[in-house]
Amino acid sequence: MKAAAQWGDLRPRVLSALVMLAVGAIEIWLGGWWFLILITLLTSVMIWELARLSQPKDPRIALAIAALAALCLIADEGWPSLSAWIVFPLVPLAFMATPRRQQKAVTAISIAVMVAGHGLFVLRDEAGTVAFLWLLGVVIVSDVMGYFAGRLLGGPKFWPAISPKKTWSGTIAGWIGAAILGAGFVAAGHGTLWLILLSPVVAFAGQMGDIAESWLKRRVGAKDSSNLIPGHGGVLDRFDALTGAMVLVMLLTRAFELPIGG
């Protein structure tokens, strides 16, 4: 019975990894406007979930903010002359202008979600398919390695007040898995040695994305971001780590070129 409880969330994690892989494959294959529409859909749904979590009484407000997020992404990516600096602040301003719980935290997370949505489009378009696969792989490998190491090795909790299931053994295993993945890309001729060091840093950013969403759900008294995925929560639950990782990559690309080939 105890073993069943210990591995009870294995199936949702495997399914979420498969969902991420499927989404990544579709994004890479479609490209162009189809790719933008898919990214916009994922981003606007996450914004909708975020708005519902922090203000569940009026669903119309959540839908309006989600629609605004979608319009901002399409406007920015579809018409490059329209800067993201002009349209993207509209979404966090909408969160600030409406009454809600944990307003500052939710506003900050909304910025991260918008930046990640923009970043996913830019990463594939400018850095190339290989870079996109690397980022997706880092998030998935880190999550899978962390899950199994945490359950098998146990040990001290990483941040028990926010995420009681996460352990230091799982966290470090996630970093090691990401570094091994980075080494694989380097061995395949798709990156420099810096990629091996960068991969666990990006994995850590993904873990922090997961922690941030867990903290928010605890603060607002919610188990999942929504019930859109029956038995597995919402889109934000599945893509919180990818959001954190993508935000860090976007910040890093402002300073230097990614050590991975397109």
UniProtKB/TrEMBL annotation:
Its main location: membrane. Pathway: Phospholipid metabolism; CDP-diacylglycerol biosynthesis; CDP-diacylglycerol from sn-glycerol 3-phosphate: step 3/3; Lipid metabolism. It is an enzyme of class 2 (transferase). InterPro entries: PC_trans (IPR000374). It comes from the Bacteria. One of its GO terms (molecular function) is nucleotidyltransferase activity. Keywords: Cell membrane, Lipid biosynthesis, Lipid metabolism, Membrane, Nucleotidyltransferase, Phospholipid biosynthesis, Phospholipid metabolism, Transferase, Transmembrane, Transmembrane helix. It is a multi-pass membrane protein. It holds the Pfam family CTP_transf_1. It is found in: Cell membrane. The chain crosses the membrane at residues 15-48, 60-76, 105-123, 129-148, 168-187. It catalyses: a 1,2-diacyl-sn-glycero-3-phosphate + CTP + H(+) = a CDP-1,2-diacyl-sn-glycerol + diphosphate. The keyword Lyase does not apply. The keyword Lipid metabolism applies. Its EC number is 2.7.7.41. Belongs to the CDS family. This is Phosphatidate cytidylyltransferase. It comes from Cypionkella sinensis.
